[in-house]
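User: Could you check the structure of this?
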Amino acid sequence: MKSPLLYILEVLFCSGLLLAFYRLLLVRKVSFRACRRYLVAAVFLSAVIPALDIPLYPARTVVYPLPLIAAPPAENFVQTTGELPVAVPVVPSGWRRILRPMAVGGYLTAVFLSLGFLAVRMVGIRRLRRRSRLTDCGAYTLAEHPQIATLFSFLRTVFLGGGYEGRRRMIVLCHEAGHVRHRHSAERIAVELVRSLFWFNPFVWIAGRWLQEVHEWEADRDVLDAGYDLTEYRTVIFHQLFGHNPDIACGLNHSLTKKRFAMMTQFRKRRFAVLRLGAAIPVVAAMMMLCSFTVKTPLPAAGDPDRPTVTVHISSGGKILFNGRPVTVGDLERLIAAEREKLSEADRAQMEVVLRADKDAPMADLADVMDASRRAHAFRLKLTAEASDPGIVRMLPPDPLRLPADSKVKVLVPDQTGNMGTLRIEERNLFVVRVDVSGTVIAGVASGPQSVSDRELPGLIKSFVLNAADDPGMAEKTLTEIALPDGRTMNYPVSEGIVSLQVSPGASFGRYLEVQRLIARAFDSIRDDLSQRQFGADYALLDEPQRQVIARAVPLKLTEPRR
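Assistant: Sure, the predicted structure tokens are below.
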């Protein structure tokens, strides 16, 4: 989503480019009808093209290897064996909090005033029509009233005052009938509405004046084509110079008499008019490429056919299948590592181990498989109970004793005495979720967890993470500046809360998946709320750059201590 400033700059660029094209290649060189339609289209296109967000997806996404903890943005997991991500606090600028609502208020005030003035003028014309004597002339309705100083037309009505007799009356009615026939008033209203919304754009005002010129030129041409004498017609126009009519209407009193007189005798439709209009197509296409198209490079989703995977199945009886072949736990590390060696360096970073287990399989068996996957440096794990189950994706913590020498991942490693050290987490920032052998969930802050139902768990986690009341016994928040896809920044209180999931080795895999989904549901709810406020859509519907913003603001910090 673009920032308002970027959108305004693109609107100015598009409208300026379209009007420059009109002035250089079209005006006085193509038909009046083509000029009118081009100007109206230019006003609307300059507002619409920058507002479009047309995604461009490359034929194939190449994923380069990243540091290990830089997992897919949707799953920012914190492990007790690694360092916690550190958010950089910033102090929001006071002037931003003041200027933004002032700017929005000023813009809306100008829009409402402009629309109000337009409505007042149209209501005034309607009242004048009701007071006038109406005559149906077929192509238009003639409204005559003594208070009308100078004739004008609006939509299908021609307004005429006194003092018009004989040929003079016939000439001016022929002129106004041209305005009605070509529906000039409808075009004027459309441009006025756009100008009310984009009152700050000088090119919209210029387009309005140029459209008014074309309207008068076209009506003048209709009068001359009807057979009236040029000199006589010019004399009639001079009589209208000191009259008045509403500026939203079409009339003979506009201050462009000199241009109109010149156009009556000099305009000749030039050759290659179609080619001149066709030249606008590449101009519009170039503007769309610059302002509307956005290259999207989303990371492959779980289960993406382009992502290399291996499958490990664990039955309730402890039998292990690797890609459909029976294996032992001792063989898993070697087999997974061998599969990784077959891949390119980029594909290794995306390799996924699909761990499928029967719902009643004990967690102790899965822990052995997870350890084998860690030792083989396959850290992306998809947990699922059946083939049709979308499952959940988790990033395993690295094995601190088996990291490559050039690894950028910092972990706690044993010192000379064998002590692993301590990763200190403030007690208020830890939310414990324990699952016992029977599947009962005990959850709460570290100082006082208690038995909770599945229905209550997501709400408790959400309240802990958000800590809307700034409860000193719940998660801290760090005001963090986050870059948005359009170049702006967002200040958001990122929670320091961590969910610690502790599952008994005797608990079933099915229950483990259920609890994992409940935890994810809590964070998904927070992400949906923020993405709706920031981007106007749920988190799942955002494109990848927007998802990264929300994932950074609401990271899913989950740790599963190893026993």
